[in-house]
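TA notes. Do not distribute before section.
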Amino acid sequence: MNGGNTTSGSASQCEFLIALDRFKTTSGLTQREEAEFRMTSLGDLQSCIRTIQQDQESKKRLMYMKRLDPFLQTMEQYGKVLDVFVNTSEVVAFIWGPMKFILLIARTFSDALHSVLDAYQDIGEQLPLLRGYQQFCVSNAHMKTVLVLIYQDILEFHREAIKHFKQRLWMQLFQATWRGFTAKIQHLKDNLRRHKQLIESHATVVQFEEIQKLRENARCEFDTHQRAETERRRLRVIQWLAPCSVESLQNQHKETRSICKDSGRWMIDDPRFQKWFSPNGCLSPLLWINGIPGAGKTILASVIVDEACSVARTSTTFFYCKHGDPSRSTFIDIAKSLLAQLLTQNSHLLQLLYEKASISGEIELTSKVIAKELLRTALHSSGTTYVILDGLDECDRDNRKEVSAWFQSIVDELPSKDIGAIRCLFISQDDGVARKDLGAMPTIRIMPSDNKSDLASFATFWCEHIEEKFGKRQDLANIIHARAQGMFLFAKLLAEYLFNLPSRAFLLEELEPSKLPVKLDDCYSRILHRITENKNSKLTDEIWKVLGWVACAPRPLRWREIQAVVSLDIENQDVNYGRQFLDSPKDLFASLVELQPDGTVELIHGTARDYLIRSDIVAPTKTHLSLALTSVGYLGFPEIDVTRSKDDTENDFLEGRLAFYDYASACWAIHLQAGLACHDETENLVSLIETLEAFIDLHWSKAAKRLAISKTTHESLEALSQSESYEKIAQAVVWSRKQLSRSGQGPSDVEALDLWQVTSQMRTILESFHSVLAKDEKEKLQRYYGSKWFKCHRVNCFFYHEGFSTKSARDYHKERHERPYMCIVEGCHMTTFGCVTENALKTHLFEYHGIDFLGDTDFPEPKRPAASSSKHEASYRCKLCPKKFTRAFNLRSHLRTHSDEKPFSCSTCEERFTRQSDCNRHEKGHGERKFKCSGPLDDGTSWGCSAAFGRADKLASHLRSKTGQQCIRPLIMQELQNGRQPGDEGGLLDLDADALLSAGNGLPTFAEFLQLCGLNKSMIEPAKLSDNLNGSS
């Protein structure tokens, strides 16, 4: 070899080694795995394949392992050509090693092995046979580049496949994740097909460069498409999960604690906490941190969250529970948020969650069964995961018990070797319920001495602000610190109360020891006294009323909604914004409330609500009755009328007269039933009945369908039984509660009331403003209605009041309500349009994509510790024979054997098959049939029957048959007459069989030919040949 070739060979070797190094660094291989790959030969791989086949045979689960032949045969020839360019066996070994690794893992799960065998067959069929092109590849530099590209594509397939099989719980995730991998496999097949075309056509440099451009364009297009598809699926999952934005809460808590240096560090350094937290090993995967109300537990939780997020190669999930917030108080709320967080940190979950979102039939995840199965799989498959749940005492009793029991069971399921893979931290008050649920686990109780440093920093910060306003005051920080007794909430309320005093004289008076608050209730009492001091009784009543609304509303009220309510003049059926508050929530209610970033108003702490109720400032039943009267009275306004003209409604919107409609139309029945507990107040009851009757008369639908009214509903409405319209009122309440429930189907022509029509007409007009109003007019309207004007029509949907910023987003959301069952196959039109019913989706997936799993394997269960290894009971029994099955889809397949049903037909010849996979394999045979039973003889005639086959093994099967032996008889006789034996110089054995194949003759060498036919050399001895052939005829 000359110097130029040596240089070229070195460059080629370098390119192969670069590709190999990239594979090693991106495949996540251990040192042991890398060493095993390096030492693997083709013989080792073939031995492994034989072992797998023998194992399948012993278990009577044989698969068609010859699907590997196209890949093995082409790669064997590829390896021999590579020997010219590289002087190390490692390059080829990293083809055989990964393949062996993948097969050994896949054999443990039949679906996985089927998929892997199919993938190798598909890829192998796109690879070129190189035996006849070795010299061409060696002598052309651009062909060397093609060989490198083939190597890169094979390594890329192996890298992605290895990632699938190395992930935790790969069996449970396989079906979903492999379907997500099919697009990548198709992309690699397209690459290999182009490489094959280059080699077989002896492409010139110009042709090579053109194909290279095609490859690069295809790669860019594929990458762009994959990014867009991934983002589409991620958005679909997030819409389905509709998680509470705990990240924004975390940022708020982070900002709150920023005034204290190293806040909460004492907990991080606590040895008891480190037993749970330490990244180097976990002795206690469960931990309960508790403390008195207001001890700063939530801020401490935010510190722990940040610390956990800083640990490399782990996942961190967290949740802040909140009493009275329907998105932060139940198990399903927690599960949805944790799933969204795990998805952000573990991309392998996307396909799993996307498929479940598509086939669940829910526009938003509400099923606890699905949520638990998904969360269990996600937690078990995400490596070391921290789960931090704050404020569990904010949930009701049933949800507290369910949350604590379920997460404890998840940790208990882990095998001993995985202890610490899932770590759950619960943070709550130490009440009797919590002790019952959490008392058995390791516990840290927050004592006043624990957080004294943080509290001192907090007190110093506020002392500086107070002294900046009023002047120096000795020991002010010590007073705040000492009075707090370890309660951050107490310190915050006291400090803000002192800061908001009007003068230094008032400050000095309040700091008298006899006047300083001692308990948390004292702080609340002082704040309430201060915010109502020097205010007239009417304004004081309004303040009490709003605090009651905030405490009792079934969902958080926005400040603009509160302003709309106080502007209502029910008696005169008018909306007068001259009655709205001019002060901000903080000015009106001081430290009692907080205005959230989304405009909602919330009490500062659950203890504030308890105090308001305990001190009779807020009476829940009276508050509900007041809101019921207000809502029903408002819904009787002239503006809320299905016959109202478009021009009038437009004016109503512009004047802000419809700002309370979303809340009133959704919540009137809730407040009515909750408020009737105080029906002993005769005056209010009479007023309520009268208002209800007017409301019913105005909005009753002539097409109303009467629903059954339960005994419980009758009892809750008993106070209204004296009304002449009682039956209609009861029907209206039942319809409202039905539509608010999970089973609510959205607007219906047969609803008791016509409010759904009013809603539709109003929103059509509001949406039209989006494109016609000037910027300043839009901003004015946003003060009344917010910025999201495109809303869902279903009253039980979060987006009924939340809305969307664009029409397209709302329309997509609406379509999911109406056609919630989505196809999971990329590129299918039904991923956009969806199906109306689950059965329609099942039929679509089965008939168009050959997927038959919905409803049968609802969700793969992670393996759990079991007492025995007994097989699953076969619970699906055939009605026509004694056979039983463990899977429903197996029973369906079996039933076809009784009916001879063959639902799958070949698109070319219409031959029918029982299984989709058999039909697919058959259809491949209609492609290019390059293996032919035919060839020329010396006398100008031909031998064979001219039958063509799509695969070499099918031709071999034909030639082993009696018919096939007759086909080859003329060829064998000719060879014997010419005095040539298989293997003689100049015989057929010396012909370039691969060149013949590529030319279309479809023949192997003569010796291989006989071997494929099941013959041997002795059979063509003249005497035996005549006997054999005559006998076969």
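Switch to the second chain here.
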Amino acid sequence: MVSVKRKAAPSVGTPAKKRVEAFKDPYIDDEGSEDDDSISEDEASAEGGDFVEESDDESEKEAENVEGGEDDDAMSVTGHPKSTVSSKSLYKPPTNDEIQQLKETSDLFKSNLFKLQTDELLSEVRTNPTKTTTLEKALRSVKTILDSLLDIPDLSVSEATSGLLNEGIRVPYPDPAPPSDAQYKLAFKKPTKVFVVGSYLVRTAAKQPNGVNVDMAVQMPDELFQQKDHVNYRYFYKRAYYLALLAAEINKRRSELGLTLEFEAFQGDRRRPVLVLRSTGKVSEYDFSRTGFYIRIFPTVSQSVFPVSKLAPARNNVRPAVIHASTHDQTPTPRYNAALLQDTGLVAHMNLLHHHATTCAGFRDACMLSKVWLYQRGFNGLSGGFNGFLFAMIIGYLLRVNDKFGNRLLQNSFSSFQLFKVTMQFLATHDFGRDPIFMTADGKPIADTEFGVDSFKSQYDVVIVDPSGRINLAARMTAADLDELQYEARRSLQMLSDNETDHFEALFLKKVDLPRIKYDNIARIDAIERNPSVYTPAIALDFPSIHDFLAGFIPRLLKKALAKRIRLACVRSERLPSWNCDQEPHTHEKLKTSMHLGLILDPEVSITVVEHGPAAEDTEACEAFRQLWGDKSELRRFKDGSILESVVFDCDGTLEQRALIVGRMVGYLLHHHLGLVPKEDLHYWAGQLNKFLRAPGIEMQVPSFQGVMEDFNQFAKDIRRLDGVPLTINQVVPASDGLRYTSVFIPQPRMDDAEASVEAYRPYYPPLDVVLELEGSGKWPDDITAIELTKRALYLKIAEMFMQQHPGSRAVVSTGRGRHRLDNGALEVTTAMGYTFRCVIHVDREGALLERAIQNPTTPSSEVEALTIAKAAYDHTFVRVPFVSTRIQNLCLRYPFLPQTIRLVKRWLAAHLLSTQITDEAIELICCKVFVDSEAFEAPASGWVGFLRVLDLFKNWDWKRECMIVELEKGSLTVEKRNRIADTFRKERGLGTDGPLKLKPVMWLATEPDTESRWWTWDKPTAVIVERIRHLAVATLQHVEDVVYGNITETSLSKVFVAPPKGYDMLIRLHPARLTRFRESLSYDPESAELKAKYKNLLQVKDAELALLSHIDPAELYLEELQSAFGDVALFFHDRYGGDVIGVVWNPKATVTQSWKVNLHYNAEAVMSESEQKNGASKKKKQAWTVRPNFAAMAAEMERLGTGLVHSIDVITHKA
């Protein structure tokens, strides 16, 4: 049940009714005249004056009190419950309003929490009309200035321009600027009307980080324009001059009003500049700087000033001579025509939205929800794409017009969330190309054929025609903008329809338009110096900016050529910045603005080598295909007998190389059609991180995991079929990251002796762990030691039988290292292919015996500790690792780029010396989260974006207050299970209590069998390590963004895999020549004289020792010794992949002085005062000694433990 505030039913009586009746809109009321396009005086008065709307709070409160006068339990006018409440009212049945609210919550919202979150969001983004006093004063003052302007007689273009320039105002003419010898004149007359329009007046404005605009329309008198001013930019020149004069007058009083003035291209359209006024905060009376508002002034014109038929989509209104083009082809200029028409509709559109706001109670909140959703996805309208105004107009369209089946999708009685969700569904599913939107009364185009369906469809990518039937509100939207809008709408609709998971944050709170984490591949296209052949003079008539043209052309080209490979192609660029009124207007060409191309790929189709074209019989389609692909296109016969035009991009067949095919195709297409040169004009990011997944000093014999997986499958078959083994091996379970596709380096077969002698090097070959499941038997002994000895006997027998039955293989039995009761050896089998598998036998009885012994009260406490360690090792080896290995292996097969993502994250963490601070399994599960629960995104289709999304997860994860739930098997975590995990987390963390948070484990990572995060993160990482990872992720993401945006060179990308030598107390430097994995290090230098000489000498002296060393990792063994001896007093940081440095950080708790006691676990020295040092310590015999860690002695002991391996120790802090 949802909590309900009991109050009087909202008034639907006289006040609201009067407001509706007073409203006359030409699009709604048949009797409305065409000129009656503003709110009536009575209504304007009711809404707060002649140009500023104010909330009618008193009348609403009064009506509420009248309705609730007899209700004992009604709310007071302040919104708080009355102090005295009748006991009867506590048990009164719910009112109709409350029942409706409860029903809405259960039917529409997935949970009470989702509704509460939505209500809270709306309260946060809703503007407060009681805090706009200074803003309204500023608006009134600006209006007074504009109403008092004097007429200026006709002037030539040069006179008008120079006159304003003398006043410090440069006229923001569009490009091309008017000729100085133009025959027409520029003049100024007092505005016909000055009024506020837009979302502020309709009360649909939503707070945004970049501020909230308050739009003021200034209608220019009709007498300023001549009959043909709609041609050749003459209207836009006069408009720019008019706006400049407004700026000049306001500029004279800017100090008095405390304002700054700037020009801005409205929605990126240089034809339609607006004047932007911001408060400086220096004049308290007009200081609205803290409200987040800014004022935009729009010059407008009446609907009757120009013949509308002259501005039809297929009409040409820019003659070639204007741009000095040699062509005489008068191509239609639909964008130009729409820009002019849109200046005639601001008031009418505002009236329409106001009508819906007053007749539909949920309209305003629905508009605010939509603006939040759009902002988080980058649809802010600053560059002409989809925006909140279009969303609101579509809501109004769905409220007024029936669909093709005669049904009306929205009703005025719908709640704000219903309005939002249904509109989202409409955007996601509507076919805008086949069925353009006409917002007329019947939803059909007007009778004039020049404004018919075909006329609009042939000239615009997207058609959303306003209620007049003449203005395309989406004239500046490209097909790519629509594709991205519908893509995001579909993703959001899936989240809204998911009743199991709360996606509120992904829908409304998460910024999902960041290119680095949204797109699978990213490219930066530098500003084009020369116009390509596709940018013809005919196109330039309607696209004066080549930047704007390419923003639509490039996605359209790629969608045509790579339709099956890419799910979305978008072009993003920086918006045109505003400019000071005394400056030249900005253009993308002058600023040399680069564009960023983002591609979302189909993970299966995008990696195919061949692009199939049309059949040879279709000559017309073949010719189009050849024009598209140029010389790359060729006729090929395929195995099925078909003969097709096709394009082939060969590669070595590995996933890493096939993932680069789309990038190669994009580079070729843009070079062929636009002349862009890859790596000069075009910078493409997809495979730049692949080099970090190769060992710099080791030549790969096998390029993919296929070799090791095939050998493992064969080994599993061979060992299960062995003859002469007492118990049959039923199952061979992979338990190594190399067998689940997640090891940083692809497992390689062992070098033979001949290869090693040539290279003078034998690399380290980590064995691949597997678990052998035997058939059941009741003859296993009931003693743990006896079971271990029996298992060793079985190892010996299996080794003997395997080598006999499979010549060329080698099998040895290790005796273990005795780290715990179960560490008694394993069977290591090297197959004929050269891979080594380390096998351990799983006996269920062993786990039961350990559990029984631990629970036995007669077991000595010292024995219990050893048994507990053994039980933990048993669970880790035989339960946890096999479970996770098989599930992650399945996920890697399901998501092709999950392995590459995991490998990159492991390499990145290791490069920052964090290999020992977080388990491999924890890293893999965190990476899986990005794929199985991608929320606002699709699962990554490249290792590049997968890696960056994991870093983004590290950056934004509030690990103290949020648990991470990873579903390894689809559908296995129900809502109830997720809720139980969340409840357990809150309880264990101590959330909602007054006490401190309990950070055990620090990183709560839950899966299906591990709901309490005890498997992989119980002991590590620590809070310090998690924070370090977060800071590293932030720095890495910023560095990558700087590279992508061209702030730094691409070669500096390697720096994200270099650990900064900061934050350590000591650095233990190891001899690179004595590290069997040093050739895996990113700092490996093959030309190092020391390495060459020492490896050759070792090989010449004793090759057998090298062969033996290839089985061990000295750095790892040394780290184990350090951890065992100094784990209580220090943390150790190391890069397991060839790192030659070990960072040491002393435990802060161990650095303080304390009383001496037995078994301190570290070397200590006495702390004596100066007097004690002079007089000796004999006087203090009866008192406890005060000691502190002897860091110098411990450093010396660390060096002694690593004799022969340690090169030197650098002491950074004073402690040691």
